[in-house]
Amino acid sequence: MLPILAPAVRRLQAIVPAATLVFLAFFEALPLGLPHGSVVMPLFTVIGVYYWSIYRPDLVPAPLVFAIGLLHDLLSGGPIGLMALLLVALHALCAAQRRVFVGKSFAVGWWGFAMVAIGVGALDWLVASLYYLHLMNPRPLFVQIILTIVLYPALNWLFNRAEMTVLRTN
Amino acid sequence: MATRGNGRVMRLAMPIKAMVQRFALLLLLAASGSLLVLSKADTVLTERARTAVADIVVPIMATLAEPVAAANRAADTVNRLLFVYRENDRLREENARLRQWRDVAARLEPENARLRRLLQAGVETQNSFISARVVGDSGGPFVRTLLLAAGQREGVEKGQAVIGDGGLIGRVAEAGQRSARVLLLTDLNSRIPAAVEGSRARAVLLGDNSPLPRLEYLPAGAEVVVGDRIVTSGDGGLFPAGLPIGLVVAVGDGGIRVQPLVDLDRLEFVRAVQFESPRLSSGGEFGRSGARR
Questions:
Q1: Residue B175 — φ and ψ, nearest 5°?
Q2: Which of A27, A32, A72 best tests the B interface by mutation, with the highest count of B CBs <10 A?
Q3: Which among B61, B72, B209 has CB closest to A29?
Q4: Which phi and psi angles does A4 have, rounded to 5°?
Q5: ipTM strictly over 0.90?
Q6: How confident is the model over B16-73, as pLDDT tens digits?
């Protein structure tokens, strides 16, 4: 590759985590035809923010995470600011606790994510209940969090691929 | 952080950077909180912001939704092929029943027209519809909405009834230029004036985010049994009356539960009903309820 293109390529590479988050935010709002009684769209952006905040926090600054959460909120028809709040809090937690996760095995990462996802779910329920002034039925949220935790390995693998091939981190 | 050449400045810069980052985080958390409060307080502004974003985003969603819709259609085709014999029998039965109803309707239609003329009841207003494609879903556990790729430019307006194949699915909650958001009748905030088809008993259909909305505020003494059809009552002048909604599937401790006639999970194309409330139209000679003025 021409060395003259190196800075441009580096800039493009730097956008990859942000691009994945934007794509996931759109994906979360797609009509997949899932039966709403039993299945709720998993929180892919939570997985994304968790991963990138731990492994490349330099490429996903807090304002970007806020914007992704806001995008999700505006697309979802739910309370505006809810996902923004959850993702920023998640980002803060992950960026602060990076040392716990970086370099550890995949199982540790998954376990950590499960804990974090439950926390996010609890906060989601709390804020939504306050917002609607009504104790929300926790069951669909429960399903959503379980699904998100179950899908973590798949997305983790995808992000890992992206990191190894496109970002070439050391 | 770029080296400043001076070691002391570097040592000062790192804590400052950390402080700025922490401040940014707090600021963003506060901003999220403020947005939540603001969106609860000022719904007009919230609506405008959401519709503005939806207008921009809908073409992207439409493109992304296309492969998903194609996959769903393919799965549907496979499903239909697998159960083709059973479906065939069912359709034959239904066809026979519908033919009977058609004959009844054909007999009643001229009599109905004659009676209407006699009572000078006025012309039955024909509704026009705007077809729209579903390009987004709320996807959340607390909200049940759809995003449509049609807006005011196509004639979709806030408050219009939205129907699927066979019945009401919800109401247009927000309408932008090129997009619209539909509040499904199963959403927590959905309140639809309804009536029991046979007895014309008035009630309200309340959503609670579950697949089966509740029928409440029935007049005392009204009898509702499983199998009753629920339709829109037209009260409030927002919706046309008589739009089918669903069937009563449970009457008991959990309240009166209504199963919507339309499968709300597999919607690809819906129609918004352009309905002008008789009360709001000025100078009209014919009202649906009143006699000729």
A1: -130, 120
A2: A32
A3: B61
A4: -70, -25
A5: no
A6: 888 888 888 999 999 999 999 998 888 888 889 899 999 999 999 999 888 888 888 8
